[in-house]
Amino acid sequence: MQYRQLGNTGVRVSTLCLGAMTFGEADDKSFMHQVGSAESDACRVLDRAIEAGINFVDTADVYGQDGLSERVLGRWLGASGKRDNVVVATKMRFRMEDGPNGTGASRMRIMRSIDASLTRLGTDRIDLYQIHMQDAVTQDDEILRALDDAIRAGKLVYIGCSNYAAYRLVGSLFTARQAHLSAFATLQAQYHLACRDIEREHVPACLAHGLGILPWSPLAGGLLTGKYRKGQAAPTGSRMAKWKDRYDGFDKREQNWAIVDALVAIAAELGRPASQVALAWLLAKPAVTSVIFGARSVEQLDENLGAADLELTAEQMKRLDGASAFELGYPYEFMRRVDGTW
To answer: Which ranges of 232-292 would DSSP assign to H, the alpha helix?
Structure first.
């Protein structure tokens, strides 16, 4: 296992982060119904991940119903005695309660959400606490002051954000600097071969300000594992078999199959699973600290672990970059034509 600094902090985390979204069997009230794993399976995955050198686990209050993922992780942390061996990350922002204040990132809700997550996780502090999506209503200074107070109280260690527009991310960093408040250390964002949009603004911003990028859905929900092929239905029992609209959207974009073809070809050359190649491509990208991937079984976990020490050649990176190339749009294409950069 390899380790990198968590953004501009002094903490080192494994380059592979275990995503806990599927921990626990959610009922039909949850968007994770029928795509999660039994708690016993989740605990086996956690045991194996720690054994393999992973020291970074990411969850969120909204995963499962009523904080199911956090509760499963919390019980494992208590039973295993591994709390101090794990950098625990969780998130808040989306609706957890009824009523007008059951969602969002107001100071009131942040304070309540932190305490609720601490209880579910069975711990005295959260190592990385992230705002799950920007709140268009709540101002940055309110959000950051609440988070800063929680850091000073010892409830949080570091803070990050997820699903933020680049302008809001940079604005938040400016507010933190001006007000002498704790600033975001990480950005968790969708990033994979079939979705490189954050390369326009977010990647340059994170490089300029020292934030670590934590890609989520690095395998595009399983579409970059090589088990999905053009013109074929999603395998029975797979996540995409349940999320048919998402699979149909992927299927209609011809470039996606060119990406899969390039990925599968390079995987065959290396004698590695396609999933490892997709993860290794991300780990070679600037500002990426750790790639978040999920595993519903030890077998799925083991299949992806090899990505930590897989280094793609410049030629292989070029092939994958070419297959997944996307239009930058204005003004980025204009700037690239003029001086080759943006």
So the answer is: 239-242, 244-251, 254-270, 274-283
Name the class of domain 3-229+273-313: alpha beta
Closest CA to 92 of 33, 52, 132, 41: 132
Question: Judging by beta carbons within 10 Å of its beta carbon (0-12, 13-18, 19+), is residue 171 exposed, middle or buried?
Answer: middle
Amino acid in position 288: V
From the list 3, 63, 158, 247, the catalytic residue is 63
What would you measure as the largest C-alpha separation in the chain, in angstroms?
Answer: 59
Question: Taking Cα atoms as reference points, which of 29, 2, 36 lies closest to residue 17?
Answer: 2
Could you state, in order of their start, the residue ranges of all structural domains in the chain? 3-229+273-313
Closest CA to 21 of 122, 89, 110: 89
The CA distance from 33 to 35, in Å, is 6
User: Hey, how many other C-beta atoms are within 10 angstroms of the C-beta on 224?
Assistant: 26
Tokens for 333, please give them: 């294409």
pLDDT, one tens digit per residue, over 216-270 is 999 998 889 988 777 666 666 666 656 666 666 776 788 999 999 999 999 999 9
Question: How distant is the alpha carbon of residue 319 from its chain centre?
Answer: 25
* Contacts with 223 (C-beta within 8 Å, 6 or more apart), sequence order: 194, 240, 247, 250, 256, 260
Global pTM exceeds 0.85: yes
Contact yes or no for 19/300 (Cβ under 8 A) = no
Instruction: List the one residue out of 44, 91, 41 whose CA is nearest residue 292.
Output: 91
Query: What's the token pair of residue 24?
Result: 């626990």
Would you call 158 a catalytic residue per the annotation? Answer: no
